[in-house]
Amino acid sequence: MKLADKLLAFADAKPVVYALPRGGLPVAEEAAKRLHAPLDIILVRKLGAPGHEELAIGAIVDGAAPVTILHKDIIAELGVSEAYIEKTKKAALEEIERRRALYMKDRPPVSPKDRTVIIVDDGLATGATMEAAATAMRKAGAAKIVVAVPVAPEEAVRDLAKIADEVIAVATPSPFWSVGGWYQSFPQLTDDDVVETLARHHAQTPSNEDRNTP
């Protein structure tokens, strides 16, 4: 069963679907279409370990008060300095602002306040970016938070269940090696792909208020 099929159970809640770009956007777009839901993005950046940027030591979401999630056990094990963390956070926020200007342009974000929000990515590894995104949505007043991914390790699902109201993963393989390893094709999206996808969805559903109406 596809992820979008599993999410049909939330159709009556008139949810908002949020993607973690870039990779989560195609998955989120399909879900939003099936649910006739608004589609928006959460701009979150992984904080990579020194010399091993693919290893997350945390993640950050921008906003009036940026939300930062740190994996203190990994930081302690690697001996990551506070100076490195602050430098990495600064660089991440700068990249988030670059993407915000490019992706959002003058379009206002869809508010999660008092709504059921479904946060979608192409998969979870450590879950750091999704944890930061879910925490930010909770602080923004979301009534219910659903995390939805095609594939994730069981440990990440258990950890996120402490933050989100529901976590849906189509597959939880063990052992888990990488997100991309579970896709037949795993192309890397570009900024242009993100802009085109958002423009296409909003052209098809121009009214934020009526998007949940088939």
Describe the 3D structure.
The protein is α/β, with parallel strands linked by helices and 214 residues long. It has a single domain, classed as Rossmann fold, CATH 3.40.50. It is built from 7 helices and 8 strands; from the N terminus they run H-E-H-E-E-E-E-H-H-E-H-E-H-E-H. It has helices at 3-7, 25-35, 72-78, 82-104, 128-139, 154-160, 191-204; strands spanning 16-19, 39-41, 44-49, 52-61, 67-70, 116-120, 144-151, 166-171. The strands form 2 sheets. The chain has a 5-stranded parallel sheet, with helices on both faces. A 3-stranded antiparallel sheet has the order 3-4-5. Helix 2 packs parallel to helix 7 (191-204) and helix 4 packs across helix 7 (191-204). It comes from Hyphococcus luteus. Pfam families: Pribosyltran (PF00156). GO terms for molecular function: transferase activity.
